[in-house]
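In practice, a research group might receive sequence data for several interacting partners and want a quick structural hypothesis before committing to experiments. The following worked case mirrors that situation: the sequences arrive first, and a predicted assembly follows.
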Amino acid sequence: MDFKLTKEQELIQRTAREFAEKNLLPQVESIIEENRVPDAVIRDLKDLDLFALFMPEAYDGAGADYQSYVLVMEQIARICPAVAVIMSVNAVGLAAVEIFGTEAQKKTYLPPGCRGDGVLSFAFTEPGTGSDPKQITATATRKGDAYILNGTKRFITNASFAGPIIIIARETETGEVSGFIADKFCDGYAISEPWKKMGCQGAPLYDVYLKDLAVPAENRLGAPGKGFRILKVALALGKIGISAIFLGTMLAAYEEALRYAREKTHRGEPITKFQAIQMAIVDMAMKYEAARWMTYRIGYLADHAKDKGDILKDSAMAKIFVTETAVDLARIAVGVHGSYGLMKDYKVSQIWRDVIFGPQVEGVSHLLKVLVAGEILKG
Amino acid sequence: MNIILYSERPDLASELVTAGRAIMDICGGALQALTIDDDEQADFLAARGVSVHRVRSDQPSPADVAQLASAVHQTAVALEADMILLASNRRGRELAGRLAQKLGGGCLTDVGRFEVLDGRPAFSRNALGGAVEDVRCMETGKQVIALTPHSFAAAGVATGPGPVSDLPVRLSPSLVRLKETIRKGADAVDIEKADILVVVGQGIENKEDLTKAAQIARSLGAEVACTKPVATDRKWFSEERIIGLSGKRCKPRLALLLGVSGQVQFTVGIRDAGAIVAVNLDEKANIAYVADYLLVGDLKTLLPELVKRFSA
Amino acid sequence: MGFVVVSDHGKEEAMNIVVAMKQVPDLKMIRIRDRRPLLEDVPFMMGEIDRSALEAGAELREALKGKLIVLSAGTEPLEDTVKEALAAGADEAILILDEALRDGESALVAQVLAAALARMPDVGIILFGEGSADNYSGQVMARVAEILSWPQVGYAREIRIEGGVAQITRSLEDCEELLEVPLPVAVSVVAEIRQPKTPSVTGILRAGRKPKTLWTLADLNIGLNGGAPVRTISRLAPVSSRLGQVIGSVDELVEIVKAKRGPS
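A structural hypothesis for the assembly, expressed as tokens:
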């Protein structure tokens, strides 16, 4: 067992940190204000090969691994979680195409996705049925050389970028669930206004409307009926990204609280002299540390799993723990700030609004616990 | 101990006279100064009561440190010097290494002070980025010591002038051609010499506040200096005004630090100030260690008030 | 226009650019206890100013048509530390590893680097930082130049190479000097010469696969006769004699400043 980063991992982490501090930090306010990440940010991420970490170089990825991906996402989210959310969803789309796609699909969709000029989106959740794969209502009807897709997908990230969207839909003929790669902004594809949400601004969520959207038959992802397999892999990998993102917000909250505690004086003494604050600092440090190793470990598991779907239980547990603990930690961090923690001038107030997204996205905690319980208790 | 001293700058050379005399007080011996193709400086130093050798080179090229080292080396050999004192400005530091190599001797640059240890001088300089101070002794017969500018008082005019003699040296042709010297224009300040300094740190976040800091400096009759990032990242000042390990070491009577967090790489440059007064919001722990008096508060609101109060 | 050095035979000759790197402890990680620095577990890194020198060197590569080689002398972790330079664009590394180099004593390091340079073919220029991040002594460049009988220029803010000649702007306290020096030359640079670039992920991943040559002191025929020329007697954190008094009001501050300012 070795808990040390390799020199390469250390340097990749530093590259992400330098990028986040030099490039993202000055723009965070305007990203939140405009609820939009400028294209230049994605271009700059690509220039440092941070945008598609674990994809092979042959497809314009960085050729690194999931462990590096986790380290990078943590550092990006520490400064601007929205950018990391866009990266995470793109990564899920890329992985799905790489694992299940045909060579032609890979050649078409992976390089632009890795470069950031064709950012991928992934559409699974629906308004009526939420994230229950068994109840998917979006339909795909075979008609000659094409599938005709209909339905509504809810809370979809990256839906406004040019680039493909992977849609999970039920084939009307067989009743089986399959995956499809559709190009956005063609006839039959429309999106809503972005949802007005309380945090993570910059990565807007949309509803996606599919109305007789024609997808060429060769754009079906994997064999017919492989939808659940695709979903299992996508969910397993998506939780790695989300865990790393909220690990990054934890780090940010902890650092903010620590800094404030050192600066703030009460009766001429820094408040770190008071035991109540000391306890809070230790609680935050422990929570971050526990979450950190759990997150890094699922990166390691993903690198070593032949079938990425196999790590779903572990990544779900990590995701539940990290996102719930991130909320706890942020609560403590706000507490350390006293009333100032509520003010927009203090970064911790934004972190508080961001951090609640963790347990509520990419499978809410309760749903995931049901899934994990099933895994633990089976046979 | 046979000591010779050299700096191209007369003011720094006169500080070396003071330091050299202090070393002689410890070890005994003789102190001699040398000037290179600079009769004016020779007279200046002789007036400080020190014996001066006017080195005459056959082909002077003051920008060529190899030649400079050769000239000082020949003189050191001729005068059988054990210790060569230089100023630790940029020219002096560059010369120090080459000269030490020629002499086969040890070398210390950026020496701020020395003490007596077993009857010989032990020199102090910063190490580990200023986190610690090393005390070091020389183990070689020949040694080169470069002293931080303004660590020692300049020698005053003596009652009787020291003797002046000429000393010719032979140099090989220079490989370095000086095409142009560009004076640093309006911003050529010497913050090392300032009695009062107003130091701007990263806690001053915009140019408006910077203007206010400058106003305060004017009211106090102070020079403005800054921490490294303010010059290198924000580019608000030229590098002339940087205080710290890779900048200047200053010892003003009073330093007013505005928005300075007090990282160790900075504090080594202000450690020797008379009184340090700081106004800061951030990182209380560090700056409290550095300052005599600390006002904790938001500079955005405090600066306008300070401007008003000091101009009154 | 790209410049190519022409040898006596009229054949085009590439010249290599060498950047000297010193591995330094991560200064931000050093803790002090009882005035003593705690260096265990403090990771090593490439000094910030060496990263600037490397960036400056990378720009000269085109003019010299040669390789960018990082040269460093130190102890074991150096093999890992040098990956920073290789990730940031150096083509290959030459490392001299020996326990005797632990203290990084200037005279010994200079001797080692000069011996290595003497064995490296076609070196046109060697770049150093103006001083190492930890000790900031700034001797090694000049010592190396002296051993090799090369010209030297310290505190370079700009370097251009054309026609086998380097045009270097030296930044001094009160002036700048524009100098012309033939190659090979030893140069130290100030941090302003170039901002260090953040290395890309693929650059980092390729670093470990770039050529690396390891030498020992014995390979360079360097014996350790006699002790170091300088002995460190003590190494302690300075004691602050500052009052560290928190004051409560602007009034108080104004009063103190006026009192300390003295008559003017």
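Before designing any experiment, note the following. Chain C has one domain: 5-232. Residues 28 and 189 of chain C are 23 Å apart (CA to CA).
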